[in-house]
């Protein structure tokens, strides 16, 4: 198992390195650029040349990349030129990442707590009214655009009914900040009103963000359970007189969860990479919203650190999924 983890870590480093190179070249080849974003209509050939020299953009790409790589290894990704001019790009990531983690955790919890039980029950009651209804709900979850669902939920529950806040992470509350996770901060400091307010601000964006992961997890769980129910070892367990509880827990669910764990890992990695549309609609202040702003202002430094950190998070989550896969299935450990 230790060799397996070390090998996966080495692969992760290689993936992140190749991605950093491709990302650096892609951003430099985009039309426009940082100089145009900073100078705007006031740009002259002389001012462009001075700014390019000041930013090091007049040097060959391989030199720019080498300097960027050396700075990145020391945690220096440069300063923002558009999102928050002058502020360190990595500080922007650190300030916004807790919001994305908090939102992603709540969204994936909703998706898992609904998707796995509904998928299992739908498979056990194949072709029933519950099965057909669940399939329709999952298809709607995939088909409805996220931004449309976000605006719809916002209009119904925030504007018309007034049950939940329209946007933001927390209202006008003088809350104590400890970890950057607003709900957790409220619980740790026993500021229950702050925790409850942060939780209310999470409900709508988390529901919006959970629809696609819920649909995917539901469909994978249902298909996996149906496949396992037709296996010989399940019929053997039934013929031995084992109880339904033992068969469901030890034989059906455990084997059916293998592809589901992989799916959940991919969904978590995708959510942590930033939900641009959801965070933008609800002004949630995570890395998804920061990515949208960085693209708008062509802020290379912020784009690089956000995309690289998101990619590293995605790869790390997949490493954890691989380890969990080996824990659940002894055959993986043997191989």
Instruction: Summarize the main sheet.
Output: none
Quick check: average pLDDT?
82
Strand content: under 5%
Report how far apart the termini are.
10 Å
Structural class: mainly alpha
Helical stretch tally: 15
User: From N to C, what is the helix and strand string?
Assistant: HHHHHHHHHHHHHHH
List low-confidence stretches: none
Helix amount, in percent? Answer: over 70%
Task: Describe the protein in words.
The protein has 335 residues and is mainly alpha-helical. Helix content is 77%, strand content 0%. The protein has 15 helices and no strands. Helix 1 packs antiparallel against helix 14, helix 5 packs across helix 9 and helix 13 runs antiparallel to helix 14. The chain is globular and about 85 Å long.
Structure characteristics:
335 residues, mainly alpha, 15 helices, 0% strand, globular
Topology, please?
Elements: H1 2-29, H2 34-39, H3 45-55, H4 61-73, H5 89-124, H6 129-143, H7 146-160, H8 182-188, H9 192-229, H10 232-239, H11 244-272, H12 276-281, H13 287-297, H14 300-328, H15 330-334
């Amino acid at each position: 198992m230790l060799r397996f983890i070390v090998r996966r870590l080495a692969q992760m480093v290689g993936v992140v390195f190749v991605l950093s190179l491709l990302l650096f070249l892609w951003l430099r080849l985009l039309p426009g650029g940082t100089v145009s974003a900073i100078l705007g209509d006031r740009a002259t050939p002389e001012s462009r040349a001075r700014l390019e020299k000041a930013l090091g953009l007049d040097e060959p790409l391989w030199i720019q990349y080498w300097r960027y790589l050396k700075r990145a290894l020391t945690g220096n990704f440069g300063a923002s030129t558009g999102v928050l001019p002058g502020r360190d790009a990595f500080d922007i990531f650190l300030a916004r990442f807790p919001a994305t983690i908090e939102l992603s955790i709540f969204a994936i919890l909703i998706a898992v707590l609904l998707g796995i039980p509904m998928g299992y029950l739908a498979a056990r009651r194949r072709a029933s009214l519950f099965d057909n209804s669940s399939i329709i709900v999952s298809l709607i979850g995939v088909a409805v655009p996220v931004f449309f669902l976000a605006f719809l939920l916002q209009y119904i529950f925030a504007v018309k009914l007034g049950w939940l806040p329209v946007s933001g992470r927390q209202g006008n509350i003088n809350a104590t900040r400890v970890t950057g996770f607003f709900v957790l901060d409220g619980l740790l400091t026993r500021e229950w009103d702050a925790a409850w307010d942060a939780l209310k601000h999470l409900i709508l964006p988390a529901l919006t963000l959970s629809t696609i992961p819920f649909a995917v997890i539901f469909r994978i769980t249902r298909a996996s359970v149906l496949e396992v129910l037709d296996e010989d070892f399940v019929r053997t367990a039934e013929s031995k007189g084992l109880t339904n509880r033992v068969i469901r827990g030890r034989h059906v669910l455990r084997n059916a969860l293998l592809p589901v764990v992989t799916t959940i890992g991919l969904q978590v990695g995708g959510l942590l990479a930033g939900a641009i549309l959801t965070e933008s609609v609800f002004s949630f202040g995570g890395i998804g919203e920061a990515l949208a702003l960085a693209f708008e202002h062509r802020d290379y430094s912020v784009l690089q650190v956000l995309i690289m950190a998101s990619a590293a998070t995605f790869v790390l989550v997949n490493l954890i999924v691989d380890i969990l896969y080996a824990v659940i299935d002894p055959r993986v450990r043997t191989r």
